[in-house]
C-alpha cells in the first residue's frame, strides 16, 4: 500500500515561513495533486471493467455465431416432444413374423386414477369401483378417499367397457388418462420368444412401454425409436409352423406324462429359427411374476427350456465324436471298432445301456446301436485337446448367440479338469451340459455340409455360413449314419412317409438342483434333420421327465418318448415349410402270361 504524502509537511512549512511565504499555499497544492491521483486511479478501474465487459460480450457473440452456423449446416429434425407428458408417450414398433403377420402391436387404452379432494361422495365412488373391478378392496378405497391422499392409481389399464362403467359412476374425482399398451393378439403363441412388455416412466397423460423379456427387451432400443414406428421388427418365425409345433408338443407332453417339453426348428443353412417352443408356457398379455421361492427354476412357466435349460443331453452327442473321427481321417463309417468290455478309465468302468455287449461294430453301427464304449474308444483316438477344439468350434462352450435376453443365461457347464475320463464321457453326452439350441446349431453343421451357422431369430436372406468345422465328406457320412439310426436303430418311430428323417436319440439322467442325479427321472432328446437326401431343417425335441407304459413296461428312453413326438411334428410342419414328399415308385405288378 502506497504511503500518502501529508498535506502540510513540516520541513516545507518551516522553510516557507523562513522565506516569508504563506504555508497555506503548500496545503492547497498538495490537495490538488491528491485529487488528480484519485481521478487517475478511478479512470484506470473504469477502463479495466469496460475491457472485461467487452471480452464477455465478445465471447457471447462468438458462441451464438457458432451455434447459428451449426444449425444452418445441420438437417432439420422434428421435435419428439411438444407437450407435457409427450416425452414418454413413445410409439413402439410392431413385431411381425417372416410373412408380415402381427406378433406384437400397440393398443390405445386408458388408465383410471382418483383425486380424493375433488370427490363429491367418496363412499359411493368406492362402492361403484368395486362393482366394476371386483378385485379391489372397498374398505381400503374408502380409507384412501377419505384420508389425506391427493392422488392414487385405481387401474393402469382398462377396457373401453370398464371406462364407460367408471364414467357412469359420475364422480368428478375419478379421472382417465390415455395409455398405450402392448398387445399380443396370438395369446400364448411364441410367448418365450416375444417375452413381454411393461410400463417404465408413467404419468397421468402418458406411459412409457418397455420390454421386460425376450425380443421385446433384446431389441428395446430399436422398438422404442420413433424413427422405426413404421418399420416393424421382422422375425424368422413362421406363425403357422409355430402354432402347429406348440399344438403337437403340448399333446406329446401330455401323452408322455412329461413335466415339460421344448422344441427348436432351425433352417440348417441360414440359422433362422422358424419355430421354437417351451412348455409349460404363459400369456405375454398377462405375464406372471417370477418365482420368489423354490430351487428348481424349471418349475416356472417363465423358464425357457431351449436356451436356459442346460442339461447333459446324452447320446445325441455321439454323432459329433464320429464326425470328428472321420474328419481327422482316423476312421470312416465302415471302420470296425471293438466295443467289447470291460473298459475302464482309471477306476471308472465304462458300460453300455442295460449291460449290453455289442462286440465288434462298424463306426456307423456304433451310432446305430448307440455304443458308449465305441464312441469312448473313438474319443481316445481323437484326444482331449482336439475334442475341445472341435466342440468349441460348434459353439458348445459359450452361451448361444440367439437374440433373446434369456439366452445369455444358458452358459454351458464344462468339466474343471478335462482329462481322459471327461474325454470319454463327453463323447457320449455326459460331463458337458448344453442347451437344445446349442445342439440344434451343432446338428445344422452336419446338415449343411460342415459349416457352423449361428442361430438367429431375425429373418435372413440366403445362406449364412460361418467357418467350416468339418469336411463335406465327414458331414455326408454323419448324415448317412443318422439316417441309419432311423431305418435300423433306436429311432425307428421317426420314419415319416415321404420325408426321409435322420437323427439320433439321447436319454440322460436328470440332475438334481442341489447336485447329483435322480434315479428315475431323465431328459429325453431326439435331434434330427430332414429331408435326409437334401437336409434343409434341423429339429430338436426334448422332454423333461417323460414316462409311458408300453408293452407292459414303463418306458422313459427317447426312442419311446421324444421320437414319436418329433415324427408327428415333422409330418405336420413339413408341408407348411413347402417341402414336397418324395414317394418311392411302386414296383411293377408281377404278371405271368399263360396260354390255353
UniProtKB/TrEMBL annotation:
Region Disordered: start-end pairs: 279-300
Entry keywords, A to Z: Carboxypeptidase, Cell cycle, Cell division, Hydrolase, Membrane, Protease, Transmembrane, Transmembrane helix
Annotated compartments: Membrane
Domain Penicillin-binding protein transpeptidase: from-to ranges: 262-557
One term under GO cellular component: plasma membrane
Pfam family, one: Transpeptidase
GO biological process, one term: cell division
Domain Penicillin-binding protein dimerisation as annotated: residue spans: 90-224
Transmembrane segments: 50-70
Any GO MF annotation of the entry: penicillin binding
Protein name: Cell division protein FtsI
Organism: Ruegeria marisrubri
UniProt lineage: Bacteria, Pseudomonadati, Pseudomonadota, Alphaproteobacteria, Rhodobacterales
Amino acid at each position: 500500500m502506497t504511503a500518502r504524502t501529508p498535506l502540510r509537511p513540516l520541513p516545507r512549512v518551516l522553510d516557507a515561513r523562513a522565506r516569508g511565504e504563506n504555508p497555506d499555499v503548500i496545503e492547497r497544492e498538495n490537495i490538488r495533486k491528491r485529487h488528480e491521483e484519485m481521478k487517475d486511479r478511478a479512470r484506470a478501474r473504469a477502463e479495466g471493467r469496460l475491457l472485461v465487459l467487452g471480452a464477455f460480450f465478445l465471447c457471447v457473440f462468438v458462441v451464438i455465431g457458432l451455434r447459428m452456423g451449426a444449425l444452418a449446416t445441420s438437417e432439420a429434425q422434428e421435435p419428439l416432444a411438444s407437450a407435457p407428458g409427450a416425452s414418454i408417450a413413445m410409439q413402439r414398433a410392431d413385431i411381425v413374423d417372416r410373412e408380415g403377420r402381427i406378433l406384437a402391436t400397440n393398443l390405445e387404452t386408458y388408465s383410471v386414477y382418483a383425486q380424493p379432494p375433488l370427490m363429491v361422495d367418496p363412499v359411493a365412488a368406492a362402492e361403484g369401483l368395486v362393482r366394476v373391478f371386483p378385485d379391489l378392496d372397498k374398505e381400503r378405497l374408502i380409507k384412501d378417499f377419505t384420508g389425506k391422499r391427493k392422488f392414487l392409481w385405481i387401474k393402469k389399464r382398462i377396457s373401453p367397457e370398464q371406462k364407460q362403467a367408471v364414467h357412469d359412476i359420475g364422480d368428478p374425482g375419478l379421472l382417465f388418462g390415455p395409455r398405450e399398451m402392448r398387445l399380443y393378439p396370438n395369446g400364448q403363441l411364441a410367448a418365450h420368444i416375444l417375452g413381454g412388455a411393461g410400463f417404465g416412466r408413467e404419468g397421468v397423460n402418458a406411459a412409457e412401454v418397455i420390454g421386460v423379456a425376450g425380443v421385446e427387451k433384446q431389441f428395446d432400443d430399436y422398438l422404442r425409436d420413433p424413427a422405426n414406428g413404421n418399420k416393424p421388427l421382422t422375425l424368422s418365425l413362421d406363425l403357422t409352423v409355430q402354432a402347429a409345433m406348440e399344438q403337437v408338443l403340448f399333446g406329446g407332453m401330455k401323452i408322455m406324462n412329461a413335466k415339460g417339453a421344448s422344441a427348436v426348428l432351425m433352417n440348417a443353412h441360414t440359422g433362422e429359427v422358424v419355430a421354437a417352443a417351451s412348455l409349460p408356457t404363459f400369456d405375454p398379455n398377462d405375464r406372471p411374476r417370477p418365482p420368489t421361492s423354490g430351487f428348481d427354476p424349471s418349475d416356472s412357466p417363465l423358464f425357457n427350456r431351449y436356451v436356459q435349460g442346460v442339461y447333459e443331453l446324452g447320446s445325441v452327442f455321439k454323432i459329433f465324436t464320429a464326425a470328428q473321427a472321420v474328419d481327422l481321417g482316423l476312421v470312416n463309417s465302415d471302420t470296425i471298432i471293438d466295443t467289447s468290455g470291460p473298459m475302464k478309465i482309471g477306476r471308472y468302468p465304462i458300460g453300455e445301456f442295460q449291460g449290453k455287449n455289442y462286440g465288434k461294430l462298424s463306426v456307423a453301427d456304433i451310432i446305430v446301436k448307440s455304443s458308449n464304449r465305441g464312441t469312448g474308444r473313438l474319443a481316445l483316438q481323437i484326444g482331449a485337446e482336439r475334442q475341445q477344439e472341435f466342440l468349441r468350434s460348434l459353439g458348445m462352450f459359450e452361451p448361444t448367440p440367439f437374440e433373446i435376453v434369456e439366452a445369455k443365461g444358458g452358459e454351458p457347464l464344462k468339466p474343471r479338469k478335462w482329462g481322459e475320463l471327461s474325454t470319454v464321457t463327453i463323447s457320449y453326452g455326459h460331463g458337458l451340459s448344453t442347451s437344445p439350441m446349442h445342439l440344434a446349431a451343432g446338428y445344422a453343421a452336419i446338415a449343411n455340409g460342415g459349416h457352423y451357422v449361428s442361430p438367429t431369430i431375425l429373418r435372413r436372406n440366403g445362406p449364412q455360413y460361418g467357418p467350416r468345422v468339418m469336411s463335406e465328406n465327414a458331414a455326408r457320412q454323419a448324415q448317412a449314419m443318422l439316417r441309419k439310426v432311423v431305418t435300423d436303430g433306436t429311432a425307428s418311430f421317426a420314419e415319416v412317409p415321404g420325408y426321409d428323417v435322420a437323427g439320433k436319440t439321447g436319454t440322460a439322467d436328470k440332475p438334481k438342483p442341489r447336485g447329483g442325479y435322480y434315479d428315475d427321472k431323465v431328459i429325453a432328446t431326439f435331434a434330427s434333420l430332414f429331408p435326409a437326401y437334401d437336409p434343409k431343417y434341423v429339429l430338436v425335441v426334448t422332454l423333461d421327465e417323460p414316462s409311458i407304459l408300453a408293452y407292459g413296461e414303463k418306458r422313459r428312453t427317447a426312442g419311446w418318448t421324444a421320437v414319436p413326438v418329433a415324427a408327428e411334428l415333422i409330418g405336420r410342419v413339413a408341408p407348411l415349410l413347402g417341402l414336397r414328399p418324395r414317394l418311392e415308385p411302386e414296383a411293377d405288378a408281377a404278371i405271368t402270361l399263360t396260354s390255353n
